[in-house]
Prior knowledge:
With 1012 residues, the protein is α+β, with helices and mostly antiparallel strands. It is built from 27 helices and 37 strands. The strands form eleven sheets. Strands 3, 25, 26, 27, 28 and 29 form a six-stranded mixed β-sheet that branches. A hairpin with an 8-residue loop joins strand 26 (735-739) and strand 27 (748-757). Helix 6 packs antiparallel against helix 7, helix 8 runs antiparallel to helix 9 and helix 26 runs antiparallel to helix 27. Mean pLDDT is 86; it is low at 1-9, 11-16, 894-911 and 979-1012.
Amino acid sequence: MTYERDPRGPRPVLNKRRRGALAPTLITLGVLIVLGLIASQMWTEVLWYQSVGFAKVYQTELITKIILFVLGAAVMGAAVAASLIIGYRSRPIYAPISTEQVGLDRYRESIEPLRRLVGIAVPVVLGLFAGSAASQQWQTVQLWLHRVPFGQKDPQFKMDIGFFVFTLPWLQFLVSFLTAAVFLAAIAALVTHYLYGGLRVQGGGQRLTSAARIHLFVLAGSFLVLRGLDYWLARYALSTKDSRLITGLTYTDANAGLTSRGVLAGIAVIIAVLFIVAAFVDRWRLIPLYGTALLVVSAIVIGGIYPAAVQRFQVQPSAQELERTYIQKNIKATRDAYGLENIKTETYNAQSEADEKDLRDSAESIPGIRLQDPSLVSPTFSQLQQIKQYYSFADTLDVDKYSIDGETRDAVVAARELNIDAAPSEQRNWVNDHIVYTHGYGMVAAYGNERSADGRPVFMESSIPSTGKLGEYEPRIYFGENSPDYSIVGAPEGAAPQELDIPDDTAASGQQNYTYAGDGGVKVGSTLRQLLYSIKFQDQNILLSKQVNADSQILYDRTPRERVEKVAPFLTLDGDPYPAVVNGRITWIIDAYTTTSQYPYSRTQTLEDATSDSITKTTTAVSALDNTRVNYIRNSVKATVDAYDGSVKLYTWDNEDPILKAWTKVFPNTVEPMSDISADLMSHLRYPEDLFKVQRELLQQYHVTDANAFYSQQDFWTVPDDPTKTTANALQPPYYLTLQMPGTDTTNFSLTSTFIPAGRTRSVLTGFLAVDADAGSDPGKPRSDYGQMRLLQLPKDTVISGPGQVQNSFNSDPDVSYLLNQLQRGNDSSVQRGNLLTLPLAGGLLYVQPVYVRGSGNTSYPLLQKVLVSFGDEIGFADDLNGALDQVFGEASTGGDSGDGAGSGDDSGDTGDTAVANAQQRLNSALEAAQKAFTDGRTALQNNDFAAYGVAQKTLESALERATEAEAALKAAQTAADATPAPSASASPSASASTSPSTSTGSTEITTSPSN
């Protein structure tokens, strides 16, 4: 503070204090930090895309977004800024003297010091918002620029469907964006002219200056031209308009809606012309205002009242007749857009009884029944195959198929992934979390239709190191559904390995270590990159740790869905990636879809609603799709992610899909041709579950192909609720299993679902849907029957129980209920009902449900103990599938798999050595069951559990009866084959306390002795 001398004497005079540099410095520093964060994020994204070989995808997306952002911000900012400048510069030199203007003087004085700042800030802020909105339309713009024809015309306008899918969305966005820009510019003009006197609301005389009139009227004319274009485009948008009845134009839309929108478009353009003329001809200034009022009235009368009157007085009295044509268009378009046009539909006169010959003829299809429920056996896999607590399996497993000893077998599979959160707390630190614990290890697979004697799965691949039937493969899983957020791997040659590989009790450290040898991450050997990733993950240890070396790589974005979503942002991904051993590598397979909501006349639905079921509601491993609305979907791409190096491959699966063709023009060489799919990969490709869910959702209504029947809605269906779950509104999921459809010669790996009448008032079966899910094993070419959908429609006069009724029958059957209660044994164990499978058999429908028993305690796990079977009114409940089938069908059920690898039933359909082998196998199976029942009974008595002892005795009695029958069949088969004499067996069921089976060469003897 300084003082100047006053002529009248010394008097202090306060000078202006110098402005401090702190605030500008802080602002500058803040801006630099924000820019640094943005730059580091973009740089690390570039590095990631380079590491997976898809840098062009990120580059194209980023450049498109930047261009749209700049253009959108420039157009919006320029429009608003121009209005502000024109409004200010054309202000009257002398504002009219009035009470209104006197009041505005205070605002003008307040704003004047900030006028320049406001004139810059308002356009910039609005421009940033507009640019951000425009950049989000990058896919719309790219599809328009690279559009291709569909080769089909819509039924109303006779235009190529590509116009509606590619061009119309772009035009609608362009018109809406420009409308917003003109509207905001008009607001800026109104405020400026009002504030500076060019526009007066009060007082007499002229309300607008000439400059203000020209400015505002030109903007109004521009706005109305855009409204006219919007009205005209809305005519085409009616082709995807949703109504209660259909998607697409109804009678009212075609005969009133199109006319009203065309008329309104014409009126809007005419009034726009009047505004332009009135802008320069003062005496016309009121005419466009009257015209605007006319447009508002017309929009109400022509756009609202007229269509409503047509609907009420013309359509409603004769709706079925008048809507028939439009419903038929909707049915055809919907079936085309969702891939339902070639579905094979047949009436299936399902019988509740079948004779023995039909059953014998159908027996070959029984061995494909999958008894292991992938939604229940994850705890079993964990307890038997987890090995260490830091490994885990998904809470719902997957179903795949493998060729084992020349035979294709259904398998329940899972990847043994790393679960770092389950590691002991004392072992949790930065080094262990990110450098030591880096990967999972190995595949685990169990036969779908087998179990061990005590109910455990029979594994075809298990243990650490991996052993089994899947051959040699790289077992390490660095990229999976449960990988850490990031790991740092790699080391110089000769350095001691740091990564935990597998547990090894023989090693001094209790483990074997490993050094990652792949190329799936981003190299972080330099200080700059370590700094970048320290910023990205907000973790300074990446920069400071001495264990990050010159050869280190950082692995992140590691889930299969995440990786495919990033390299193919134009695809919608299936909610259930599944692992398979392909060409010696664990490979994640993901089905990917191209979708649109712009297909004319096709029914629109929400993917989330269509793909939700009891599994997605109760698990984290399988997710429903997002809340996107679509009316066209194609499984156009099969994607794979290598579990070891994270490499992503995209393969064309639908060569005819126009949307995929457009995207391959946007991103050339991104999607590889189908011919590059190897035979091994082809053998694991399956029909996608989410696509099937979407299709079955449509088939609830669109199995009806007659417009009159569709309108009446009397034959609409619904997917039943899952009868094994208590979750409300949880639909029964589709099931993968091997079956033989009526009219076909072979069994096929299929995906199936059932239908019941709409409304859920009756749970009888109305339809059974199956799709051939097996892509075959030829390289580069799927089987000809792959994807063939077959729908069995049950006649209306046929009463076949649906899943809910069958489950109720199982629960209420006295014998079944008694035995289940015995299995539950109070609080010591619980009974879990597995997936209720439905399959056509012998002219009827067979239901099969595995029953699991799970003990109490944290380490308990479900064991497959019983199998329930229903055919017609008959119910079977036994230890294995064959036993249950025998109860339902008698001795005609030859060929069924017992669930533990043994068969049962009559051998009259076999000859020679085959009959002898089958009978011997049945005998062995019965004796094994008797041995188990004996052991269970003895254990029950030791525990004073007489209820369990009673169950064991009943089981023993059943096993002994089967052994007697098998012995007779064996003798008959050996006699017929002129073989050696059959082994003798004596079986005398007893209720005694203990039963001791013993076996000797050439004979089988079961003896009983009293208990001590």
